[in-house]
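so ive been stuck on this for like two days lol. basically i have the seq below and the ligand is calcium ion, smiles is in there too. i just want the complex predicted, nothing fancy, no docking runs or whatever. if the output looks off dont worry ill sanity check it later, just need somthing to start from for the group meeting slides
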Amino acid sequence: MSALAGRVCSTPRLAGTRPSRSLLYSLGGYLLLLLLAACEHATTLIDPTAPADTTVDDGTVQKATLTVTVALTGNDSLLASLVGCEGGILRDAEVTIERSGTPGSLQSATTDAAGRVRFERLLPGTYAVSVIRVLTPDEVAQFPGEDADVNAFGGAARIGVSPPSTEMVVQAVAGRRGSLVISELSLPLPWLPAGYEYRYGQFIELYNNSDTTIYLDGKVVVRGFINGARGSAASPCDLHEPWQNDPEGIWTDLIEAFPGSGHTYPLAPGKTVVVAVDAIDHREFHPGLQDLSRAEFEFIGPADVDNPSAANMRTLGKEFGGGILTHGLDFGLVDVVTVLAEPVDVDSLTRDNIPALLSPEHWRIPGEKILDVLTASPTPAIEATVPYPPCARYVHENFDRQRAAVLDHKKLDGVQRRVFATLPDGRKILLRTKTSSTDFVARYPATPGFIPD
Ligand SMILES: [Ca+2]
Ligand SMILES: [Ca+2]
């Protein structure tokens, strides 16, 4: 890897340091971010000259048609029949397709009465297909009591599309609203007048989306394995695919647990809790940041502020060393895999060494422990400037069907889970279909501690 990357990696990125502005600008913002993200774990660095897949329509490629039928089986089929979708077929579902390695190739359409949709004039290639039909509260009211937590049908698959036509069936399943969910993640990265980027204003907000009190004690907040989110010649997507696309769970080396002995930290239905990287008033550093001094919890690193009124999260995974993790967990710069899970005994988790990482040891959070997942990537406009294409999947579709392309760190906003319904007493039920692209939107400003309408 080039001397360029070496210089970037050796540039400290701590608040209070002032890396050369000319160096930063010469690289371009997101290229820099990518390199820094890679440097966090000293992942094999990326050849800046490697082209992204920029296949274009030059008039010589034979085009293909893709027909998608959305089907349901078993109890999910019975539920669908209660909302007008007879015969194991899902009508009025939004089907979205995206060609692998081609940012900006998203298309979507709605299924007809036969549960079918057709896309014309596609470039051949591998396509990610996702399906969602969000139910209305009136539709959910027709379900039996044990299925009152269903709020959508969704599904996903990948398929190779070739001329002249390809047909496929996507199985959709009922999505349930869950219990403790991620309601907001904010990853602001303002450039301060003093000449550096400030990254400690991050927070995650969780929400009790169920009807009963939840105890946070021991539950874990995890940064999933994201260093392989983008492919390059030195670190192709295939290399990390077995860990990224593991149907059994989500791999991580950064695991943070709530303190408490079992019943110390109750969270009532409809209530939020905020975990800040630093529980301080960040407006002191930039007016667009948030006052997180009343956050209930904070992450703690080796060179950190410690607000005594915010309980400290416990580090169960890799200890934070130096570099950019000096203030505790950091949710990421370019791509995001954030996982919420039941308490885990790290010593009993499945371990593995993931190749091409300086810190290869990772643990697997098993699927049955996972409560909620958010996967996200930059907005399409920013994605178009990132020279390294995202890999097909950041996690297996068992956990999240499609990432939300919403990240823009300069906007200082929050990636927020959408409201599905509001109960007569005002309590909000949030949308959870296990499809980040459906469930989350970016909103300015961030709203730590409350759910906006
Ligand atoms: Ca901290
Ligand atoms: Ca909020």
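DSSP finds eight helices and 27 strands in the chain. The chain has three domains: 3-40, 64-176, 180-443.
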